[in-house]
Design brief:
heterodimer; A: mainly beta; seven-stranded mixed sheet; B: six-stranded mixed sheet; five-stranded antiparallel sheet; 11 strands; 53% strand
Chain lengths: 111, 112
């Protein structure tokens, strides 16, 4: 069964450092999403790509977060500099139609 | 008011019990609805899409009430393995590939 791949699975960093997360969607899925999930809450969208284009980044803190999907396949989410409040699970999802499928996530801890 | 609201629970039920969760949404124009299951420290996994006519998958039944703007999930004959957090999600906008807006999740604990 095709799955969304993410790496790393866990990341511990100190505040003010830079971190990057990688996502490889299910093959053929043109739409890719990055969500952030804080403990005890549901996931919230950070950015959505359609192929290589950003469709929605209204909730992305652009002063410190950036995302790219240069060839319309895999994607990278970067945080620079990381802050204590960025500690969360970062989830990548992809879709071909209406249903979205999530990868295993990257759990970020900022010390 | 949050766009999608769920009772966080926890719901503690014995094995074999029937349990139901509701989820309310505020945008009457919402078109697509989903239930996801999330185990502790894992990713959400799609459990069911919720159709206007309702749908059933084994012990799980999902229903949509557009008039009252809520979706429900019914679990019959609960198993220990059903213990998890159940997230409802509503797709924003009319596009097929719009973002999902999630509730905070309802925690279910099934006890022997």
């Amino acid at each position: 069964e095709a799955e969304v791949a993410q790496s790393p699975r866990y990341k511990i960093t100190e505040k003010s450092q830079a971190v990057a997360f990688w996502c490889d969607p299910i093959s053929g899925h043109a739409t890719l999403y990055w969500y952030r999930q804080i403990l005890g809450q549901g996931p919230e969208l950070l950015v959505q790509f359609q192929d290589e284009s950003v469709v929605d980044d209204s909730q992305l803190p652009k002063d410190r977060f950036s995302a790219e999907r240069l060839k319309g396949v895999d994607s990278t989410l970067k945080i620079q500099p990381a802050e204590l409040g960025d500690s969360a699970m970062y989830l990548c999802a992809s879709s071909l139609g209406v249903e979205q499928f999530f990868g295993p996530g990257t759990r970020l801890t900022v010390l | 008011r949050k766009e999608v609201e769920q009772d966080p629970g926890p719901f503690n039920v014995p094995e074999g019990a029937t349990v139901a969760f509701n989820c309310t949404y505020s945008n009457s124009a919402s078109q697509s609805f989903f239930w996801y299951r999330q185990d502790c420290r894992k990713e959400p996994k799609l459990l069911m899409s919720v159709y206007s006519s309702g749908n059933e998958d084994g012990r799980f039944t999902a229903q949509l009430n557009r008039a009252s703007q809520y979706i429900s999930l019914l679990i019959r004959d609960s198993k220990l393995s059903d213990s998890a957090t159940y997230l409802c999600a509503v797709k924003a906008g009319s596009s097929n590939t719009g973002k999902l807006i999630f509730g905070q999740g309802t925690t279910l604990q099934v006890k022997p």
